[in-house]
Amino acid sequence: MKKRIGILTSGGDCPGLNCVIRAVVSHATLTFNWEIVGIPYATQGLLERQTIPLNLHGWDLRGIDPLINMGGTILGSINKGDTLASAKEILASYEALGLDALIAVGGDGSLKIIHELSNLGNWNLVAIPKTIDNDVALTERSIGFDTAVNTVVDAINRLTFTAASHDRVMIVEVMGRTAGHLALHSGIAGGADVILIPEVPYTIKGLCNHLSQLRDQWRRKFAIVVVAEGATPCLEDLDNVASCSSAKCGRGQYIADQIASCSSNLIDTRVSVLGHIQRGGIPSALDRLTATVFGKTAVDLIAQEKYDQMLAWQNGQAVAVPIQDALDKSPSLVEPNSDLVQIAHSLGIYVGEN
Asked: Which residues are within 8 A (CB) of 174 and not within 5 positions of it... i.e. 6 or more apart?
C-alpha cells in the first residue's frame, strides 16, 4: 500500500540534516514509490498544517544534487516556544495531513516533546538523533557531531600558530551544554594543553600549576585551553564563578580573567568563543554516511511497521532502540574515568581536579 510519510527537523540545526532528507526521499521513492512531504519548522509546521512536497529530483541543479554537501536543513527548524500548549491542534494536524508515519530528526530535548505528542496522538513515529553535543543516549554518534569536532579542531589549529607567535594562552570556548563530548574529542584531536568539561571539576590552582609546568619545565611559552560552555569548577572556586556576570563573561572569559595573574609573570590571554560557527559548514564524510544510513533505515522500519523506535549507531551499524529508553538515559554525559579522559591524562593534558 502506498504510504504518505512526513519528515521534520527539530531543535538546533547541524550539518548532515539534508543528507537524512535526501536518503529518506531517495529510498522511499525508488524502493517503495511512497509520497514524502517535508514539514517546515518542525512542530510549528504541523500546527499550521504546512507541507513541502519532496521528490528525488526536485532540488537538482542541472543534474547536481546539492543536499549531500549542504549544511543546515532545507526544511527549517525551531527550538523555542511552548509546543505542548498547542498539543491539541498539533495532534489533529497529523490526521489532517493524511500522514501514515512521521520521521523526526532531533536532539534529546526536541525528541522528548515530539515523542510525547506521538504518544498522545498514537502516531507512527521513527526518530533519528542529531546533535553536535553527542549527548543522546544509546547511540555512539549523532548526526552533526563529527563535523562540529572537525570545525573546532580546525579553529584550534589556526589559533595555535598565533598563540606560539605571540607567547599567549589561547582559550577556546565550545558548545555542549552539560556534556563535554565536543570539548574532549576536539581538545585531544587538536592538541590542547587543557580541556575543561562539565563532568570533571577543575581548580584554578590546578590549571595555573599546569600552565606553570609547561613554561618552567618544558619551556613552552604558549598554551591552548579548550573550555566547554558548561565547565564546572570545584567548590572552592564556585563563588568566583557566581560573581562573574554572564553578561560580561562566559566560561572562557572567566578562565582568562582567573589565570591572567596566576603567576609572577603576567599571562597574556585571548578568548575565542566559537558559538554558532560550530553548527555550520559542509557535513563531514562520516556525518554524511551516518545520516544516509539512518535515513535509509528509518524508511525500512516504516516498511516493517516498526514504530516508536529511534535509530542508534552501535558496534558499527544502525540499530533500532525504543525512543523512551533513549530519552530515559539522556543526556549521555562523559564518564570521568572513561578511556578518552584517561588518554587525555596520559598525553599530559590537564582535564581537572588537583
From this structure: 152, 182, 183, 186, 226, 227, 228, 229, 274, 278
> Has 83 been labeled as part of a binding site?
no
What kind and span of H or E run contains 114?
helix 108-121
176 appears as a binding residue in the annotation: yes
Query: Which one is catalytic: 65, 82, 133, 216?
Result: 133
pLDDT tens digits along 98-139: 999 999 999 999 999 999 999 999 999 999 999 999 999 999
Q: Taking the model in full, what pTM does it have?
A: 0.93
As given in the structure block, the three cell numbers for residue 167 are 607567547
175 is in an annotated binding site: yes
Is 187 marked within a binding site? Answer: no
- Residue closest to 93 by CA, chosen among 21, 41, 43: 43
Handedness of CA 255, 258, 263, 269 (dihedral sign): positive
Calpha distance 7→258 (Å, rounded): 47
**Phi and psi at residue 321, to the nearest 5°:** -130, 150
Active site annotation includes 239: no
